[in-house]
Amino acid sequence: MSHPRRKNKIDRIEPTSENLTGRAGLTPWVRYLERINIYQLLDRYPNEVRLHGAGFGSIRKSSKGIKVAEAFKQLLCFFLDGTDPHLTYFDHLAADSGYASTIETDPGDMVSSHQMKRFLNGFSFCRNFLFRRLLQDLFVWRLQAQNPPVVLLDLDTMVMDNDDARCREGVDPTYKKRKGFQPLQLKWGPYVVDAVFRRGKKHSNHGQTVIRTMTHIVDRIRKEYAPNVPIVLTVDAGFFDQENFRAFEKLGSGYVCGGKVYNDIEQRAQQIPEQDWQPLDKEDGRCYLCASFGDQRGTWDKPRRVVFTRLIRKDYHGVLSFAQDRKVYYTNLGEGDPLDQLLKAVGKASWLTPPGVADLAHGRGKDELRHRALKEFGTEKLPFKRFEPNTAFYYTMVVAFNLLEAFKRDVTEESICPDVYPATFRRMFLDIAGKIIVTGGRTLLKVARAVWERLNLQKIWDQANSPPVAALV
Description:
16 strands, ten-stranded mixed sheet, single chain, globular
């Protein structure tokens, strides 16, 4: 019920000199970045990596220029903000004293769009290579924080549509009939473990990139996380190659790879007795029948296990035999290798069965949603004409995305489901009105009590200042 003397109509709008912000949710994020030591990690690279002055710290050519840590901080906040993907948005942010106070930056240190362009243009091939090291360091950090009994990875390419861009170095026609970039991305759950930013014309299995990437990642997992943890990789048919299978088997890691239903494979599946087919029921009403056998392609040096599946029920309705969707998956799971014993020891014996292998392959659909989330978080359309600054922009976007996923699980998980898409998270947490005041020698950020109670901001603030997991080292 309204107050009898209160007038609810607004008569006019006036400016105020008070320090206000519409992005109060950025403050816990900035404090979290500081507490996990991300800036110290960035500053340390030039001393540890022998790239002859090509580390992140050497980008700053003069003491009058913007500090590298400050540039990264504002760039990470820019990606999380997500209001405008264009670099000119930095000019608007530089004029907003409330935004500067929110991210704990002196207004005089706010970067302009020209400064940010110069910063990103300073990245060379060697410096951009350091981003892969950073992504892997973040991955090892999350492994140690979450302590999973098995590491399930997924490898795929992500097409970044730049079809309407004019004169972009590296923008080529892709398999999706759009011009753009096509980075190769290795993922673990919500995180991008490693990424290779590539031209659009480079297909999934281009060169030796896949083997080198997996070799390096498996080595780091064994050395820095656990020497005997089972590692399983899922890939689509674009990586169907005996050389890849050999490499994965040599590494002691498992794999599930999509294949093509050739006529001879179809004929062999038809000869399998009905009692040898095993059902795989899905929550959405689909049901598959699965069976396995050995298959050796023409140039292969040995046969490998094939899991053949056919869809017999969809939306709780039966599917006629001629319309049954048929898929094949090649794997080394269930072949009696030491990896099988490791999976059984951690309660994953079901992964060794035909339905288990098929279910792992179907799980790739959820992993591919990470591409949608990453594009929603950042942008597909990269701002520079040259390849190297676009590479730096892309990698910083991926780093910011990983840090957001860690933040959601370390700080806001009890208030907001960590699986929400970036746009939802921004509306629920980031877009909070706040007022910054200075009193008694202290700087306070004040928000509405309803928001304070709904999000339990006191606990979020405490966890942002003392993350519940170990900081980066």
